[in-house]
Amino acid sequence: MLEDGTFKEILEDRYHQYRSKADTLRDQGEYEAAAKYYRKCAGVMRDIAEKESSDRMAKKRLELVENLSSAAEKLENAGERDQEPARAGDSNPSGAPSAGGGGSGGGSSAGPDSTDENETVDAEAYLSEVPETDFGDVGGMSDLKQTLRDKVIDPLERSELYEKYNVSVVNGILLYGPPGTGKTYITEALAGELGYNFINATPDEITSSLVGEASKNVAELFEVARANQPCMVFIDEIDALAGKRSGGAQKTQSERQMVNQFLQELTDIQGEDVIVVAATNLLEEVDDAIRRSGRFDERIEVPPPDETARKAILRVHLREKPVLTEAINWNEVAEKTEGFVASDMELLATEAAYEAIDEVDSVDDIQPIAQGHIDSAIDEIEPSGPAA
């Protein structure tokens, strides 16, 4: 059998993908489907607990199992009543500060490892060194990658030429498109392509109910970015941080201060070696001041992958796994995955690997991933996007 440490890593990877899928479905209002994946999360977390050598960590993971099971039950009941339920527990099984978070609907991810909303953010906790991922690790997205090369990478590499034409480098990029289309992944790959340090933060990790705290968190986040140039800052679900200002009285003083601070920071980084990439599933909900020229110069759509892109994405996520490549009907896989977004294709690779692992008796008896494993995995995955 596989060693516990190796198997635990596989389980944790599977948990993260299930959790991402569950959160996406929940934010789309697909409560029954989301409940199914939260129960899958609970099952995987229970398996992780069994692999723990520490009784304390095992207990902590079992507590998370209870939270996830409770969340699934609430989602199932909410689906029956057509009401929006509370969020599930923490999405990070490792106990480290979460770099994920909830969806665009706002709300906190209350759980055993979640950050209290009144705590000041530790901005440096979200800073990582240059990602090892680059465009070569991104399947499909050919048009998007070319756009980023033309609009972001080339001006930085040939800055003197662009200066002669009085064209400045881009400091702000706004990516928009359905959930799960790969906005986070392509941003991390862009940072890797450029050799930039990387900060990944979500509104849940920045906001606070205390007056002045959220704006202070924003300021500290950008202070860390400036201190670690060249640096790329990625903020997912920007609509939750800076939604439209219609009905100003509806915003709290803390929220108004936070938005104003964010706008000021976007202005202040002009001329700095800092690039801010924001992402949203709801472009129309983003504050007009955020979208106007001077803040985010490039607004780029990230659509769901077509058949060609789905094949490319799956190949990328399978390339470091044992696969019978010549025995897979890639066109058939592309047809069967209609409605799958980028994160679904990544999950498909993991699920197919799990199907093969189930047939393995020892670490020396490797079962390559074949067509049957992929077909079985497809049947287990709920598409995140609409079918054509």
UniProtKB/TrEMBL annotation:
Listed CDD domains: RecA-like_protease (cd19481)
| Region of interest (Disordered), residue spans | 73-120
According to the UniProt entry, which residue ranges have a biased composition of type Low complexity? 88-97
* Basic and acidic residues biased stretches: 73-87
Q: Which Pfam families match?
A: AAA (PF00004), AAA_lid_3 (PF17862)
Keywords of this entry: ATP-binding, Coiled coil, Nucleotide-binding
Gene Ontology MF, one: ATP binding
Name the SMART domains for this protein: AAA
AAA+ ATPase domain sequence ranges = 169-306
Top-level taxon in the UniProt lineage: Archaea
Family annotation (InterPro entries): AAA+_ATPase, AAA_ATPase_domain, AAA_lid_3, ATPase_AAA_core, ATPase_AAA_CS, P-loop_NTPase
In which residue ranges is the amino acid composition biased (Gly residues)? 98-109
- What family is this protein classified in? Belongs to the AAA ATPase family.
User: What is the protein name stated in its UniProt record?
Assistant: AAA+ ATPase domain-containing protein
Species, as recorded:
Haloglomus irregulare
Its organism's taxonomic lineage begins at: Archaea, Methanobacteriati, Methanobacteriota, Stenosarchaea group, Halobacteria
